[in-house]
Specification:
The chain is α+β, with helices and mostly antiparallel strands. The protein is built from 2 helices and 7 strands; from the N terminus they run H-E-E-E-H-E-E-E-E. It has one domain. A hairpin with a 5-residue loop joins strand 4 and strand 5. The chain is globular.
């Protein structure tokens, strides 16, 4: 009976995906550049993002862009819609 319970617990713990901590705020500093919600897309591009992802609507149309900046232990994601910074999120890699 104990072996069945142990096998069940091991199976459940293995199926758990590693958790990621996401924290959204209104600003982030990239070197000497401060990017805030409401700034233009140009300011984000000048900060030289590491990755650019085009966001799409469910129908396939363009909805904006997500710019990723890789920092030690976390990724900063800047969401831009209609040429304006809409959201700044930090994703910690655990």
């Amino acid at each position: 009976m104990r072996s069945i319970v142990l096998a069940l617990l091991l199976a459940l713990s293995a199926s758990q995906a590693p958790a990621q901590s996401v924290l959204c705020s209104s600003s982030e500093r990239f070197g000497t550049t401060l990017v805030r919600v409401g700034d233009s897309e140009r300011k984000v591009i000048q900060a030289e993002p590491d990755r650019t992802v085009r966001l799409e609507t469910p129908q396939g149309g363009a909805a904006g862009y997500r710019y990723d900046f890789y920092k030690y232990g976390r990724t900063v994601q800047v969401y831009v819609q209609a040429g304006i910074v809409a959201r700044v999120c930090r994703v910690r890699e655990l």
